[in-house]
Structures are given as C-alpha cells and as structure tokens.
Amino acid sequence: MDRQNNFDEFEKLFWQLSRKMEHQWKDIYVQTFPGSQSHIMYLLEQSGPKKMSELADSLHVTAGAVTTASNQLIEQGYISRIRDEKDRRVVHLELTEKGRETLNELQNKGRKIMKLVFNDISDTDLRMMNAIFKQATINIDNM
What we know:
Distance between the termini: 29 Å
Low-confidence stretches: none
CATH architecture: Orthogonal Bundle
Largest sheet: 3 strands, antiparallel
CATH topology: Arc Repressor Mutant, subunit A
Number of helices: 6
C-alpha cells in the first residue's frame, strides 16, 4: 500500500475514532449537564470566572440562553454568581467546589472509557502514538 493510500486509510480511521470518542464523552456529560450547561461548565473550568456575555460570545448563543442554563447550574449548586469588586453591576460566573468535584468525576468516567478503548495497545505502540500526536500538535501550532 503506498503512502497516499495509507494516509487515506489513516484519515478515515482518525475521524471515525474521533467522532466515536466525542459521542462517548458527550454521553457522559449530557446526563449531568444537558444542552449548553456542559459547555458553560467546561469554559469555566478552563478559563476561570467569566461574565455571561463572554460565555455567550464563546458559545455563539444569546445571553438569554446562557442565563437560562446558568440559572439551572446555580440552582443545582454547580456554579455561583460573583459580583465584580470594582463594578458591582458586573456579574461573573464561577465553578463551585461541587461543580469542580462533579467535573472531576465525569472526567474520570471518560478516562476509564479511554483506557478501555486503548487497553489492547502495547506500551511500545502507545509511546509511538504519543510521539506522533506530539509531532502533529507541533505541526498544527506552526501553521
């Protein structure tokens, strides 16, 4: 099999696996955080406290949609509203301890699935995959 055929096969398998893994992760999160709630939780975890308008911009949804989703998360104790000390009109949302713990539990469930998916990969092949993905990350960062 020549390089182009190998690459075509790799591309097909890469996207197949990526989509299937994405569905696995979404299934884990959607049970606890339906709709845009999971995206709000992810963004707050990655970036720290955010204004609702910043979340709306990042998620490409209306401020009203963020308000609805965040109100549910607040009621459930996963996030809280924090007033800006310099301008009391500005409200930030941030994860609570319960929110951080819940995300950690969900991430651990996802990691268990990842381990099952890659369980039969040898240590040598796993090291090779790590090297390949590191190089691909360098390549994309240099684009």
